[in-house]
Model the fold of this input.
Amino acid sequence: AGQLSKREREQLAEIFMGAISLSARRVVAAVRRLSTQITDEAAVEEVVRASLRRVRREQIPGPSWFTSLFEDLMGADVRFPANLVLLRKSLFTLDGVVKDIDPNCSIRRVFLREALLRLFLEWPRRYVSLPWSKSFATHLSNADLLKLYLGTPLTVAKYLRHSLSDPGARAEPEKG
Done:
């Protein structure tokens, strides 16, 4: 068993927010803050861009996308604390068990539904919280959500530009 610190949970939320907004820069920054050692920055950026190409194809990042990202990062010689490696392994195992029990069940949909439910339940507290407070179950501040909302047109433009320029979605995601 392991436990993630609040800081680690916040950075995991940053990775998912970066993936949703197709921001390689945001994902790379969160990976840097989570890692204990990075030997090749260019390799990290390439792994992140490749993972964002998968986001464009799969539409919504979920546990399998996350485990693939971390597997690829570790293959690029990025080191993480043991509790994050354990989380990756646990998600991978959970995904396999759920598929064995019910092949029609999507762990990604379950995680998405839970995330949206948590966001909905914390909404009343958000009205009286400071814009930068991350004292929520989602570990996202009001400023984070506003940034995601205001960035939606840019995210859609990135998605369309890459999708239209290469139907195989092989174009490089933006660094920003």
